[in-house]
Amino acid sequence: MQLGPEGALVAGGNAIRGTRVGAGPMGEAERGEAAPRHRVGYWCSQAHETRVAFAADAEIPELWDCPRCGLPAGQDAQSPPPAPRTEPYKTHLAYVRERRSDADGDALLEEALAKLRARRGA
Questions:
Q1: Could you tell me the CA-to-CA distances from 21 to 13, 16, 17, 29 in Å, in that order?
Q2: What is the pTM of this model?
């Protein structure tokens, strides 16, 4: 810092101090023209609206994930897609019981025990 003519502190030597390269007004002339695009609205079952910009020639997806709640959102505000059904956690035993009846399980257990007894010689 330097003292100016009236005795005030003045930043010396660099008039654009505190700016970075590329800072400043940047218009379309410097950037080039923006690609043509259109905005599409999506609504989830919680009535959240999301507007997404797509290129004019892009394929528009039917569903979009809502950024607020994560539910699927559709383009029809009156009938948004339903929330996906979440299955409760199943244990390994629950999956086995779906495939086998209790009688099948008892038969398999007896067969395994018979093999074990035969190996032990009992």
A1: 17, 10, 11, 18
A2: 0.50
Q: What whole-number distance in Å separates Cα of residue 95 and Cα of residue 108?
A: 16
Listed residue (36, 39, 64) closest to 53, CA to CA = 39
CA distances from 27 to 24, 34, 45, 55 (A): 10, 11, 40, 21
- What SS3 class is residue 92? helix
Q: Which long-range contacts link 60-65 to residues 24+ away (Cβ below 8 Å)?
A: none
pLDDT means per 10 residues, the chain with 122 residues, are 56 61 63 85 95 94 94 94 89 90 91 93 72
